[in-house]
Structure formats: structure tokens, C-alpha cells
Amino acid sequence: MVAKQLSFTKAAEQLFMTQPAVTFQVKQLEEHFNVRLFERSHGKIALTPAGRLVMDYAERILGLSEEMETRVGELTGAISGPLLLGASTTIAEFMLPQVLGEFKARHPQVQAHMTVANSETIENRVADYSLDVGLIESPSHLPSLHNEICCDDELVMICAPGHKLAQLAAVTPPQILAEPYVSRETGSGTREFADNYFRQCKFSPDDLRIVMELGSPEAIKGVVETGIGVSIVSRATIAKEVKLKTLVAVPLKPRLIRTLSLVYPKEKFQSKLLATFVEFAMGRMKQMADAA
Known about the structure:
Radius of gyration: 22 Å
Mean pLDDT: 90
Low-confidence stretches: none
Number of strands: 11
Shape: globular
Distance between the termini: 40 Å
Oligomer: single chain
Order of helices and strands: HHHEEHEHHEHEEHEHEHEHEEH
């Protein structure tokens, strides 16, 4: 992990260890081989040639060890073991809990652990093998990841019921640009799609009158309910608020429909557990999207 992050501090965070403990482990490994694995200078570290060699063998050893345990476990026919999932905020809050609950009911011996972050963070953690699979709001930008499209997801403009745009049948980019705008943070799949939407409509995202940037759909909904401005969110995230009439959802013109994607490493051995979850999650999320 130190070699992947090129930082003792970040490696410690990923491993849920203290930095001195990580430093001690690396020092022991260097003493074992009697060679330096990292060059340290000016607060930065880099792998030495010996470090790159050890890194290569370590990844192969760990991969084979994991594959052996999985293969032996599969001889019993049961699907079991840890499943390290990552999901973008929108998917984690509004779709994945139901998917995970149903999957756990079918396979009670599976221990699922979920990390929630924006799409960019999730795909990076899948790429460095700290997560088995990720569910993100945009196709992956990383060539090392296999990308499976799960389902379509429509983005809509939301506003308070008393807002002047609330009664419209559809809203255009110029109408949104004229209003105070509540945005997701940089790195969010929703932010990326909304920005690209404006560009495709020949407008610059820089022209948005952004009054606030927030890191979750729940925060955005709460702020928009106050009437401070409008926002663009997934239709799947606002069903409850629309029903309670605390928010109004207005379709965009032209419509904005994106695909939700499931990503996992191309080179990593795919266990029966992972293959089963991928198939189940893709089918169930498509059903949920169609129902919405």
C-alpha cells in the first residue's frame, strides 16, 4: 500500500493503522532483504529498483494466495467470504442498500463492507485493489478497469414548490443558468454529467451561478428545499420528496440520461462470490431503475 500511495500517511489511512506501525513494517522488510525499498528525500518517497521487484512479487503472491483460498472455499459450493464494495454517494444512499440486503438474504455467509465516496475516488480504489468492485455514476476513465453498464438514470432539475420554475413542463439550460445553483463537488459523477450536459448544449459550466457546493444528494435536497436555488440530481434520489411535495422535479430539455456503471479490475482473479454479486447487482439495479 505504501508503494501504491507513495505515502506512509495515506497507506496508514487505507490500512486503518498508525503511521509508525506502517513505517516499522517497511523497515522490517528492508532489514529482511538487506536493501532499501524506498528512496526518501524532501518529504517524498519513491520505489528503488529493488522495491519495484519486491512490489511485483508481492502482488503476485497476494493474488495467488487469495485465489487459492477462494478456490478451496468454492469446493463446498457455498458462496461466502468478504466482499469489499465501493459506491458513489447517489448509488450508496438510494439503490445499493436494497441490493445488498437482498443479496445478503440469499447468501448469508457473505460479509459485505461498503465504502462511500464520489465516483472518482471509488474507481481509483478499485484500481489499486483496495476494493473488489465499485458502483459509479459514470463510465470509468481507467483502462485497468472492466466497465459494466448497469442501468439508465435520468437527471432532473429540482426546486422548491414555490419557485418560479416549479410549474414548467420542462426547463432549458438558459433558464437554469439564470438561477442561483446548488452544485455537487468536483469528482462527483453527477457534477461531471451536469457540466458535460451544459457543454453539449453550447453553454459553459463556468456560467452557472453556483451559490454552494455540497458533497451529498441529501445535503443538496435540504438546501434546495429552502428556496435558495435550483440543482440537478438523479430522479431516483427525490421520489420521497416529490411525493411529500417538499421538492418539485422538472425534466430537462433536452433530457439528460446517464448510465450507472459497475467496475472491477481486469487483471484480478474473479471469484465466484464477485461474479455472482456482479450479475445480481446489475439485474436488480436495472429493475429498480425501470420501476422509477
